[in-house]
Amino acid sequence: MARELDIHPGAVIVGVFVDQIGSFAMGAATYEWVLKNDNVLEEPQNWHEMYGDVPCWVFTHRELPPVPDANVFMVSGDVRRVHDAMMVAAQGRNVWLAGGGDLVGEFTDAGLLDEIILAMAPAVLGVGTPLLPRRLTSQQLALTHVAQMGQFAYLTYAVGSLAQLGRHMAADALAREHTYR
Fold this sequence. Notes:
The chain is an alpha/beta fold. The protein has 2 domains: 6-112, Dihydrofolate Reductase, subunit A (3-Layer(aba) Sandwich); 114-181, no CATH class. The chain has 6 helices and 7 strands, in the order H-E-H-H-E-E-H-E-H-E-E-E-H. The protein has a 4-stranded parallel sheet with strand order 3-2-1-4, with helices on both faces.
């Protein structure tokens, strides 16, 4: 039975996106932002509505409160060790790095980042922080997809060497061709 959803279009994108995620990680600052802004300590159902039971690894060097009944692991150290566990937990689905430029930079340094999906919203900034604390050049990035949802632009970039980028772009184009027919 089909049911109508009374939600804004951005929530649909988020729901579809999260459905493709098998595991994810975030840094301590992102986790603290979620705790505060989504009130998940007092209302743990908010976490479960957003992320379900998808396993989450929080990279931190300090003690943080756990979300009740959430599948969250507090970790520190080399991202390679945790990446292996994330891949096993993902069971062939995507692994998501939810925010945290420094954390994403560590995965990049270890050669473990293969795609960036950047959501851009219109904003006027007087000052700012770089998106990533690492320099990624045009030799390491290839734009593979652009989508619009309301005022947001979603840019998808393949990350890697030119040989990897070419294979990724070809596979992505083929997948999109079969998806939209």
